[in-house]
Every structure is written in structure tokens, then in C-alpha cells.
Amino acid sequence: MVLSDTSLAPAPVKTLIVDDTPFMRKTLQRVLGDSNMIEVAGTASNGRECLDRIDEERPDVITLDIDMPVMNGISAVKNIMIRHQIPIVIISSLIQDGYFAFEALRLGVMDFIPKPSRVGVTDFAREEELIRQRVLLAAGMKINRVRRVRCRPRTVPGLPESFNCPEGVAVIGTTLAGPNNIMHLVSALPADFRGAIIAMQEIHPSILAPFCSYFNQISPVEVIPVVSATPLLLGKVYIGSTFSALSVEKSHSGPSGLEIRAARNGRFPIDRLFESAAIHFGERTCGVLLTGTGTDGAKGLETIKAAGGLTIAQETSCCPFPNLVENALQTNTVDDVLSTAQIAHRLSVWPYMGPRGLARF
Predict the structure, then answer these.
(1) Those residues with Cβ within 8 angstroms of residue 323's Cβ, 6 or more apart along the chain or in another chain
(2) Tens digits of per-residue pLDDT, 197-224?
(3) Considering 114, 136, 328, 355, which has the largest number of Cβ atoms within 10 A of its Cβ?
(4) 76 and 126 assigned to the same domain
(5) pTM of the full structure
């Protein structure tokens, strides 16, 4: 998705660039300077210098590197979120270590994207446009609604192998600031969760697998990234990126006879996931829409509701970007409007996901 400058706020977004290398600071100044909707207010070479410059420059958005001397990006995020509440876009080369992506998103940054590089990139212009887009969109983030996630490690074994066919499925859609909300929801699930969840969140494809790998180590239930055809099993949380599309399809292998497939092309990926789940699970489908922007997901919720399934939306007062949910609420296809914690509880006791659903196997 690419947004034109004319669709955004007329006032330039004052941005503070923080990176320890002069070359990257100059590169980001050039990239952001290509938009007349962005004003580079200043630069800093580490987290400590960033904190010193905030009061002077009063930026609307901060782009932040992770690997820096004096004070690294993670420490800077903690200070900024507590002391200043300014939207942060992480731009880092540390994309293969899931800890950094997970920790930054857990603390509440708007997004974590790779540094622009011509090495191994087929569409460099698209990567640059993504940076501009994220900075522009970050300026509209309701940062006071972001809460850091407190996670607990998995404490009990997963379900026995005999319990491998989900009776029902919950499909979750979210875009901007979505990973933080997904973390909140998943971390609130019981360790013996007896359901299957497929979630789509806005996360760069190169970050997805490392992010899920680290998330899985401390999540109460198993987290699996969907980058290729993956069997749909009970007691799992599957996560995909909105940069592609996911769908539930029949499979000739696997105990459930169903799998989740990822496709590179396709608009409205949340709608596609919701509609495919409704085809296979009907009234045993639960559709959940969280924070984000746009209209994606509204049509999918309508399909789930028509099939007799349950539809849930996150309370707009909890959404850093309420637009996605607001658009869905206008269609009158939402059964319940709940907080993230309430959504986790509802899924845990939903007849097709909770203890009562176990009797159906």
C-alpha cells in the first residue's frame, strides 16, 4: 500500500533522525526530504543525543536505529515512551535477531523496518517509499493509547498430539501498530488454550519469522509464522504479514485436512483471510478486527456474520489507529466491541475454542 502525500495532513511532519553512521543519516535525510510533507528537524548519533535533542527540536516523529554507542535504540525507546510519548519508527539492519524486533514492538514503537540498502533489493524505490509512508502515518498515531506488553513464558506443555483438529478458528486482522496489540492478546491467553488463531498484522516480511521465533519463546502458546503452506492445527497461533495475503485452504496432508497458504499478491488481505475461514468453518468462525487504518476487514466480518459466526472489534478508545475499526462499525457487522484483554478471555471461553469446545472433538 502506498499513500500519496496529498492524502495526508498539510503540515510537514517534523522528524528527528537518529543513527550512529553519518552515511545513513545523510541517506535518510535524502529519502525523507523527497517528500514535501516531511521536515527533517535534526539528526542525532545515539540515543543519549536523541534525548537531548527532543526538547530542542520538538519532533512529531523519531526514526531510530538500534545498534548505537552510548545509548542503544532499545534503551532510547524506553526513555522516549516514558518521558515524551513521541511515535517512533525503528529503521535498523538488525532484522534477523528476533529479540530486537520483538522488544521494540513490545515497548510500543509504530513499526520496525529494514534500513534502505541496494544490496539484494529488487525495488529500492519501494523501500524508500515505505520509510516515507511510515513516518507520515506515524504522525497520526495516538501514542497515549500504546501500552508495553508484559509477557510470561510458556509454563505447561501444549495439547496432546491427539488434539490436533480445530473445531473452530479465530481470524484476527490488524494493520498499523498491530503487533503490539497481537502481543497483548496472545500473552493474555491461557497456557492450555484449546483453539486455533490466524492473525494478520502489518509487519515487514523480513522481520516476520525472527519476530515470531522470539515471541514463541515467551508466549504461553506456540506462535508460528506463515511464510509458506502451513498445516492448521489446534493450540497454535499463526501470524502472517499484510504485505502478502493468507487464506485457509483444503489440504491433502495433515491431520486437519486444512492449511494456511500465503500469497504474494492480493489487495485487502484481511478480507481474504476472513472470507476463506468462513467458507471452511461457517458458524465456527470468529472474526476479530483490531487497530489500523483503511477499510480492509469490514467485508470479511460481514461474510463471517452471514455464515453465523461471531464478529468482534477492539474498542476504539484502545486503538492507536481507530480508523480500521471505525469503518467496520459503520457496516453494523460487529457483534461485540471489547478491550484486548476481554477479547482474549472471550476466545478462551468461546464454545469452539474454550473448554466446552473440547467435548466436540
Answers:
(1) 292, 293, 294
(2) 999 999 999 999 999 999 998 898 999 9
(3) 328
(4) yes
(5) 0.90
- Tell me if residue 48 falls in helix, strand or coil: helix
Query: Which residues on adjacent β-strands are paired with residue 285?
Result: 169
Rounded CA-CA distance 13/241 in Å is 27
58 in the same domain as 181:
no
Domain check: are 41 and 188 in the same one? no
What's residue 155's pLDDT? 61
> What CATH number is given to the structural domain containing 192?
3.40.50.180
Domain range for 313: 169-358
**Beta pairing, strands 258-263 & 230-231:** antiparallel
By DSSP bridging, strand 258-263 and strand 245-250 are antiparallel
Task: Give dist(CA 4, CA 72) in Å, integer.
Answer: 33
Amino acid at 251: S
On whether both 332 and 236 belong to a single domain, the answer is: yes
Residue 153 located in a structural domain? no
- Indicate which CATH number applies to the domain containing 74: 3.40.50.2300
Residues 118 and 173 in one domain: no
d(C-alpha 53, C-alpha 346), whole Å: 45
- List phi, psi (to 5°) of 126: -65, -40
Among 118-127, 209-218, 241-250, which stretch is predicted with the lowest mean pLDDT? 118-127
**Does residue 154 lie in a domain region?**
no
For 32, list phi and psi in degrees, rounded to 5: -70, -30
Residues 137 and 226 in one domain: no
Contact of 40 with 66, CB cutoff 8 Å: no
User: Considering the domain boundaries, does residue 161 fall inside one?
Assistant: no
The sign one gets for the Cα dihedral 326, 249, 266, 134 is positive
Q: Is 100 in the same domain as 177?
A: no
Quote the number of domains for the chain: 2
What is the distance between the alpha carbons of residues 230 and 248, in angstroms, rounded to a whole number? 10
Distances (CA, A) of 199 to 25, 169, 237, 269: 35, 11, 7, 11
Q: For 148-168, what is each residue's pLDDT tens digit? A: 998 766 565 555 554 577 889
